[in-house]
Amino acid sequence: MALTGRAALLAALGSLPVGILEPGWTGILAVNASLSVAIVCDYALAAPVRTLRFTRTGDTSVRLGESAEVQLTVSNTSSRRLRARLRDAWPPSSWPSGTAPAGSRHRVTIPAGERRLLTTVLRPTRRGDRRAELITVRSYGPLGLAARQGNHRVPWTVRVLPPFTSRRHLPSRLARLRELDGRTSVLTRGEGTEFDSLRDYVPGDDTRSIDWRATARRSTVATRTWRPERDRHILIVLDTGRTAAGRVGDVPRLDAAMDAALLLAALASRAGDRVDLLAYDRRVRAQVQGRAAGEILPAMVDAMAPLEPELVETDARGLSATALKHAPRRSLVVLLTSLEAAPIEEGLLPVLPQLTRRHPVMVGSVADPHIERMASGRGSLDAVYEAAAGAQAQLQRGRTAEQLQRHGVTVVDATPENLAPAVADAYLALKATGRL
What we know:
Residues 198-374 form the DUF58 domain. The protein is α/β, with parallel strands linked by helices.
């Protein structure tokens, strides 16, 4: 039995006039006994909590930063009216403040044999699965003096998906893709291009594209047009080791890498290429393989949602072997990792030739804009020391990038908001030059 604040107040106030009307403990006990009887009766008339029935409906997934609604149906199967307060508990990261808002607490009145629909609005602040916790119900009697309280567990999971903020860059990259595809302008010939059609020669065209046999059969000079070959394989590898746990501004490195992977996958699938995903540190954390163009983005988003960085050093040798296993024939391997000197020099560089012998490789990394601001700082002694530290960090990062480039790797080093479009641009450049 749970006593309410009203019962405690009546017990305190009820004992005051007794000392005036009838001195001694007998009167006090008589009044408190009456109140006790009222409390017991009120408790007996409160609707039972254990017999309540609950069902859930609503959203099962939501993008990070958006709201999800979960409905809870409460059925009162008892013969008494339910007057209750209900708390629908979820993890703290289900709301921006970290604490449940008033919308997760409900006051309900349900006549016997009826049911009510309650709605809890979630706005998660982290990716992953958010699982409903206990439902706590406090059922009050008609006088509000006593209450029954109990818990129910009604499972429900809302998967919080990556936000894909770089989606806004997709239209402009698709327009450039259409240009490469020969719909707007003529392409140059490269290793990864194939013959598309013939058209009349215009000044400025590469004379090597002139088709002399076709020209002999017509009155004008004919040139060949070329378009990038389709059905290329793109393997996106997410490094989920300790370096992915670092935050650049308010964005974890892993989240920025995910955003770049989603934009690249959307663009490559529109280009007719096949895209696979691999997340790895010391073992495979997630993978997406063999999906059709229309299925690749939903599959990747769902696979990425529960991923969290592991505070371990990435096994570069295992990563290379796993990537080669997932890409048995020539593919573009896009590794989204850190450009820190130690992991690259001690981990990736020794095994990099195994990858570059069979595949073109691109490395995408998140740069910290604070380092650039430090390097440009002046005006005080502290600012000069910070500038020296920032310049040294930039120089070391540049040297690491140069080491990768000497192995034929395309390096993309950009801030979190620019990494996704920069990786997409690098992909388009490789496709335009026929290097895929």
